[in-house]
Amino acid sequence: MRGEVGCGKVKRRKPPVEDLVIEALMYRLDSDDLSRHIDSAIGESTALAKLLQERELQKTRLTEILNLYSTGELEFPEFKIAKTIAAERTRRLSKQIDATWSQSTLANIPHGKTVQDAWESSDLSWKRQLVDTVIDKIFIDPKVPGKIVPMYKEWRFDSELVRINWKI
Fold first, then answer.
1. Which of 111, 124, 92, 100 has the alpha carbon at shortest distance from 43?
2. Measured between alpha carbons, how far is residue 168 from residues 37, 39, 121 in Å?
3. 150-164 per-position pLDDT tens digit
4. Helix (H, G, I), strand (E, B) or coil at 10
């Protein structure tokens, strides 16, 4: 299997890069430092549920405002003011939800389950959200010409050329 060519003509095989990143992620998630983030995220998970519920209520209010205007129970100036206020409130709630959302991924690791167990039993969208929560960027450096490529597990792959910048 050939690697894909990326920026600067750097190419790597996908399986060893994925394996290395997942292994580093599991190590990072099992660290004591991150357990503090998970503990604080559990409290934020209930806050997220409240924010989501409040935003749905606000969307319902927007629909009611439109219905009142369309039946003539609201004049246009009243409709315009009410709609502007309700839309702004919805926008602010959405910003709060976005800020809280990433922490909820950590809170959704079931109690009594290891991160590895949760990873193996979760769907791709949850895994992607977890990676986005914890990893900022992954850099793959070009190999040094003439350097012998070491073995990484069953692959000829230099794991030293992969750098991970962590968000948390």
1. 100
2. 8, 13, 23
3. 999 999 899 999 999
4. coil
